[in-house]
TrEMBL record:
EC code(s) of this entry: 3.1.26.5
Protein's name in the database: Ribonuclease P protein component
Top enzyme class: hydrolase
Keyword field contains RNA-binding: yes
Pfam families assigned: Ribonuclease_P (PF00825)
Taxonomic source organism: Halovulum dunhuangense
InterPro entries named in the record: Ribosomal_Su5_D2-typ_SF, Ribsml_uS5_D2-typ_fold_subgr, RNase_P
Keyword tRNA processing: yes
Length: 142
């Protein structure tokens, strides 16, 4: 039989820990229809990539953040495309859980020469700025 101390919900042996911050779950877009739907929605170009974003509709589950990555052959050969996509995946992992909106789809599109070679810190800043522009209240500018 387990002692009361061993069934403690805190892993540090009964010491109180700060509550964990809950971030939305990131899942990867896989269907072509999802990519096409994002292409018809909002877009924001940055020097390192293009961000497309859309709020999912009523018929789709509106929980979690979905993200997709794409690089055309204009980006380069397969080595360059894969490097660009790895970098896009990493900036998405770093920024989208904090600044992405629950119930939205995001597609990051690599750019020739820039995505693979742009400094990583600038790529992070580009995604933060693109997200703030995408999610800005559209009525303010009208």
């Amino acid at each position: 039989m387990a002692s009361p101390e061993s069934s403690s919900p805190t892993p540090s042996g009964g010491k109180d820990m700060a509550p964990a911050v809950s971030f939305p779950v990131l899942s990867v877009l896989r269907k072509r229809a999802d990519f096409l739907a994002a292409a018809r929605a909002r877009r924001q170009a940055t020097p390192g990539f293009v961000l497309q974003a859309r709020r999912r509709g009523v018929e789709e589950p509106a929980t979690g953040i979905r993200v997709g990555f794409t690089c055309s052959k204009k980006v380069g050969n397969s080595v360059a495309r894969n490097r660009a996509k790895r970098r896009l995946r990493e900036i998405a992992r770093a920024i989208l859980p904090r600044q992405g909106h629950d119930g939205w789809d995001y597609v990051l599109i690599g750019r020739a020469d820039e995505t693979a070679n742009r400094p990583f810190a600038l790529m992070l800043a580009d995604l933060e700025q693109a997200l703030s522009r995408i999610h800005a209240d559209r009525r303010q500018g009208q």
